[in-house]
């Protein structure tokens, strides 16, 4: 994210460095298809393993230490929210995946705020590119997470309601038999089968919505910080005070050029700070939304098994 910032700094010192801006696709940095986002995912995944090992130590104890208490607090908070949505019988099967989703996505989202992410460069094809980049700014990564969630949804659906129950949930006739003429009741099978086909398309597009929502927020946030870094460099290098716009604004305000120029030059570096806090919040919300939606999708079908007993599968 600091590529353009370094470009501006280089330009201020007269260096003739070629740079690139953030692109929507990941950059291959080490050949063999190893991209900047893939390297970041390895680094952060290793950090998660070491962090959990450090927090929990050799294993959980009856009297938890500080680290174990932190992990248990996160587990307990997620359990309080997710278990009523999914039901107890499905919750114990998928909760490890949900906890993994939440921690992995959260720390990967926040990784874009760490020093070195986007600012450690190497030259590739005549331009400087970052070696590290948040993995969730890569659509391939978020699509993989979404596909794993769909596979888990299918597995748990079949495990808890069976193939017939899954078919009945999607294509079954949900109308009550009593009070409906036989011909109309038979016609409703066709109607509900058509609705089931639409439901199948909706289920497939869950993967699209999950992946694009996460990717769009992280990639947009990464670009926002990138642009704020660039603009703060522009301010602190007196780029703005030399513009015609600044002169026009001063004429309108009636003076104070030295004071305003001083503030812009020496406080301009604080410009990205509010956006840092914004990205901390966005990273937390997006990790929670992704995890919650996976839980809702599973809960929608697993908790309807009682209702499925009333669905006519004929």
Descriptive report:
This protein is mainly α. Helices cover 69% and strands 3% of the residues. The chain has helices spanning 3-12, 36-56, 66-86, 88-110, 139-171, 182-236, 244-253, 257-267, 273-302, 305-308; strands at 121-124, 127-130. It has a two-stranded antiparallel ribbon. Helix 4 runs antiparallel to helix 9 (273-302) and helix 5 (139-171) packs parallel to helix 9. It is elongated and about 85 Å long. It starts with a helix and ends in a 6-residue tail after the last helix. Mean pLDDT is 79; it is low at 1-20 and 310-314.
Percent helix: 55-70%
Shape annotation: elongated
Biggest sheet layout: 2 strands, antiparallel
Q: What low-confidence regions span 5 or more consecutive residues with pLDDT below 50?
A: 1-20, 310-314
Strand order of the largest sheet: 1-2
In oligomeric terms, what are we looking at? single chain
Condensed summary:
The protein is mainly α. The protein is 69% helix and 3% strand. A two-stranded antiparallel ribbon has the order 1-2.
List keywords for this structure.
single chain, mainly alpha, 314 residues, 3% strand, two-stranded antiparallel ribbon, disordered C terminus
Q: How do the helices and strands line up, and which of them pair or pack?
A:
Layout: H1 3-12, H2 36-56, H3 66-86, H4 88-110, E1 121-124, E2 127-130, H5 139-171, H6 182-236, H7 244-253, H8 257-267, H9 273-302, H10 305-308
Antiparallel strand pairs: 1-2
Helix pairs in contact: 1-6, 2-3, 2-4, 3-4, 4-5, 4-9, 5-6, 5-9, 6-9
